[in-house]
Design brief:
By secondary structure, this protein is an alpha/beta fold. It has helices at 19-32, 47-51, 64-69, 73-76, 96-100, 104-107, 109-115, 134-142, 154-174, 192-204, 219-223, 231-234, 239-253; strands at 7-10, 38-42, 78-79, 85-87, 124-128, 145-151, 180-187, 210-216. Strand 3 (78-79) and strand 4 (85-87) form a beta hairpin.
Length: 258
């Protein structure tokens, strides 16, 4: 961990797997335990930013300014109602892949910024877009652990396995095995598909890299973003809140979150 600070990136090469939901509720769970976490939204669709109520009108009021002109992250950060400090996204982030390139200086820009003392006030959770772009690579190179949500369907599992192959191919660059945790989302023990995805993950992935926590299918969890609420503000006594608390406990137990 950089200077004792945790950096978690949440990524899968398939959309619709609960990536933004996981970022949202991990951040909220950390904030509820008395820390002031930072969220960094690197998805041009800006779903995380919208849920937190951050809608920058100009690209320069978003994390775009950090990548495009070297603005400090603190200059675009906002404190949200959930107690999270958010660096919001903007649609213009989609332009950066063509303008920045993917050289080592470009893909480690976020890591270098987060290494600077005093940059953030607590753990950092990064929401990636579902493509292996310069933005996602910045998150991967910056993080201490990569959380890969896998919803209970074949396409999500296939996306996770493709990402696993990509991570293995990048190991010579990392000079280590990047810590990662595969997280099963939208799990329903009554459905055959969920059981088959569990079996597929067990066959293809390392057991110690699969989260024991499973995020169960839950109406409150699915609808909370529409109300611009994390699950702890929307249904604090429900199983969605319990599952994300359990996930934070698991990451803490593994030493990824203080």
């Amino acid at each position: 961990m950089l200077g004792g600070m945790t950096i978690i990136a949440v990524f899968n090469q398939k959309g619709g797997v609960g990536k933004t939901t996981t970022v949202l509720n991990l951040l909220a769970a950390i904030a509820r335990r008395g820390q002031r976490p930072w969220g960094i939204d690197l998805d041009p669709q800006a779903h995380l930013s919208h849920v937190f109520g951050a809608r920058p009108r100009r690209a320069d009021d978003s994390v775009y300014a950090f990548f495009a002109r070297g603005a400090p992250l603190a200059d675009v950060a906002q404190i949200t109602r959930s107690g999270v400090v958010l660096c919001p996204a903007h649609l213009d982030l989609a332009k950066l892949d063509a303008t920045l390139g993917k050289g080592m200086d470009e893909v480690t820009r976020l890591r270098q910024a987060l290494q600077q003392p005093g940059t953030t006030t607590g753990p950092v959770v990064i929401d990636c877009n579902p493509l292996l772009t310069v933005l996602s690579l910045n998150a991967v190179f910056a993080c201490d652990v990569l959380v890969i949500p896998v919803s209970s369907d074949y396409l999500a599992l296939r996306g996770a396995l493709e990402l696993e192959r990509a991570l293995k191919a990048m190991e010579p660059v990392f000079r280590r095995r990047l810590p990662r945790r595969y997280l099963l989302t939208r799990y329903d023990a009554r459905k055959t598909m969920s059981a088959e995805v569990v079996e597929g993950m067990a066959k293809a992935l390392r057991a110690d890299e699969i989260c024991t926590t499973r995020i169960r299918e839950n109406v409150h969890l699915a609808e909370s973003p529409a109300f611009e609420l994390d699950i702890f503000r929307h249904a604090p006594d429900g199983r969605g809140a319990a599952d994300y608390n359990a996930l934070l406990d698991e990451l803490s137990g593994a030493g990824f979150v203080a």
